[in-house]
Automatic annotation (TrEMBL):
<dbReference type="Pfam" id="PF14226">
    <property type="entry name" value="DIOX_N"/>
</dbReference>
<dbReference type="GO" id="GO:0051213">
    <property type="term" value="F:dioxygenase activity"/>
</dbReference>
<keyword id="KW-0479">Metal-binding</keyword>
<dbReference type="GO" id="GO:0046872">
    <property type="term" value="F:metal ion binding"/>
</dbReference>
<dbReference type="Pfam" id="PF03171">
    <property type="entry name" value="2OG-FeII_Oxy"/>
</dbReference>
<feature type="domain" description="Fe2OG dioxygenase">
    <location>
        <begin position="212"/>
        <end position="310"/>
    </location>
</feature>
<keyword id="KW-0408">Iron</keyword>
<protein>
    <recommendedName>
        <fullName>Fe2OG dioxygenase domain-containing protein</fullName>
    </recommendedName>
</protein>
<dbReference type="InterPro" id="IPR044861">
    <property type="entry name" value="IPNS-like_FE2OG_OXY"/>
</dbReference>
<dbReference type="InterPro" id="IPR005123">
    <property type="entry name" value="Oxoglu/Fe-dep_dioxygenase_dom"/>
</dbReference>
<dbReference type="InterPro" id="IPR026992">
    <property type="entry name" value="DIOX_N"/>
</dbReference>
<keyword id="KW-0560">Oxidoreductase</keyword>
<dbReference type="InterPro" id="IPR027443">
    <property type="entry name" value="IPNS-like_sf"/>
</dbReference>
<comment type="similarity">
    <text>Belongs to the iron/ascorbate-dependent oxidoreductase family.</text>
</comment>
Amino acid sequence: MEVSNIDKALAGTTTDYDRTRDLKALTGKELLDTGVAKIPKISPIFINEKSDFDKTQFEIPMIDLEGIDKDATQRKKIVDQVRDASDTWGSFQVINHGIPTSILDGMIDGVRTFNELDTEVKKEYYTRDRMRWVASNINFDLHQSPTAKWRDSLFCPMAPVPPNPEEFPMACRDILIEYSKRVNRLGITLFELLSEALGLNPDHLKDMDCAEGHNILCHYYRACPDQEFSMLRHSDSDFLTVLLQDHVGGLQVFYQNQWVDVPPIPGALVVNIGDLLQLISNDRLKSIDHRVLANHKTPRVSVGCFFSKFFPPSTKMYGPIKELLSEENPPIYKETTVRDYTTYYNSKVFDKNSVLQDFRL
């Protein structure tokens, strides 16, 4: 078997690394069934980067959305909090967001139930065919990327045109559809608050189609045999991400050159500013780098809702919002489309440098 340059790099200087074997090991449940004690060489996405910071020094902002539509004074306070958190952290948690805890818990349970079904049952949804809208796999780019992720994922494009409900797995079908409706409403509310935080009309970002589409990506992180590793840091390529995580935790954001834990809080949702929102806000809102720590004790579930029109990918041009520009604040990014930015992002996602920087003028 011919050994590629990628294989050589992963295996050091040797040429006896069997990448096909590790690819197979990362398919379905085979990894756990074989009883591996260490991560395979194909997974350098796990990096031994421990956190030495004082965990009491920083705490991700928590924003209570109670009263945003009833009290003008309270709404202004919330808008100010959103502005401060988005400008400094690029991330915050929200409570009293309108989605019942029963829906959040049901979504987590549905994802866990699906992933813990027998492999034979899940085979119906396992595919790497990108023409299939609802897809379950280990790594969507496993055969192209030199690195791998220690997680199973269920990908579901939900808007603007959702698939036929029959395409969703029975184990999480009803709750997925209901959660999608609820989180879409929350997304619109968040875009209104972010618009106001920028000094714009509340509907400005919505009118730009920032909330026109969203995908839901359900992750199931199996217990990792090596507890000292973490997923590679990255930002999101979309406008906005709303993340639901279970009680296990492990999410961290990069703030002031340190990794800060995002503790799981019952009923709370994490909101991350995406690259495209930083681009159109001309750096007024900041995209956040984040990662997930490997857990060697128990599986972890998270559900990310990514707001951007990915399917079909939007060809609308996006650049810094003209109302935010002036002689003192000229545009610092060139225009792009969701399609072009996402394509470039996917080709560079494992680079250490921010993809967004390549779009600076």
